[in-house]
């Protein structure tokens, strides 16, 4: 794969976004390294439909980091993570957070293994598996799923991974009234927090669901 140089505006966009979100400016370097790798691999393997690196900053990096303050330690399984979103940005931001990147697509799993190696993310591992087939019952403090199914659907395929009292942190667009009403027994919504993503038009919410 050819060397990749990101447009100069990409670093500026990321710096402004991190500042607006109150995050450490030092995160820019590893996040840009991850983004460079993603742009390079995406040319060949179509890991994400978003091609513009500046759009990736907003819709991938900053959108993922919008939930960074809500999970900082313990263990997290990121279901259907694709090329590692939000799991890899969260692992970069919180070295004390143990992240398992759950993805059944082989190309995306190979990319993530390379990203974890190059970024030296000792707190991240790739599980090349469908969420429902991952045999690690009750192993995680938190689950997340950024673009995967309804709340009930996420719980159906990945709920077994969460310990009792653990939390599902689900990224949603508009306030998901219907999805909340359809939660299965044994699960309850603790809160729904509006998220601010610099540069992103439209609503974003983090839905925190607890396993009783």
TrEMBL record:
Top enzyme category: transferase
EC number(s) stated in the UniProt entry for this protein: 2.1.1.170
Keywords: Cytoplasm, Methyltransferase, rRNA processing, S-adenosyl-L-methionine, Transferase
Classification via Gene3D superfamilies: Vaccinia Virus protein VP39 (3.40.50.150)
Chemical reaction(s) catalysed: guanosine(527) in 16S rRNA + S-adenosyl-L-methionine = N(7)-methylguanosine(527) in 16S rRNA + S-adenosyl-L-homocysteine
Location relative to the cell: Cytoplasm
Source domain of life: Bacteria
Binding residue positions for S-adenosyl-L-methionine: 80, 85, 131-132, 146
GO CC entries: cytosol
Membrane-crossing residue ranges in chain numbering: none
Molecular function as annotated in GO: rRNA (guanine-N7-)-methyltransferase activity
PANTHER family xref list: S-ADENOSYL-L-METHIONINE-DEPENDENT METHYLTRANSFERASES SUPERFAMILY PROTEIN
NCBIfam families: rsmG_gidB (TIGR00138)
Role of this protein: Specifically methylates the N7 position of guanine in position 527 of 16S rRNA.
Name of the protein described by the UniProt record: Ribosomal RNA small subunit methyltransferase G
Species for this entry: Stenotrophomonas terrae
Gene label: rsmG
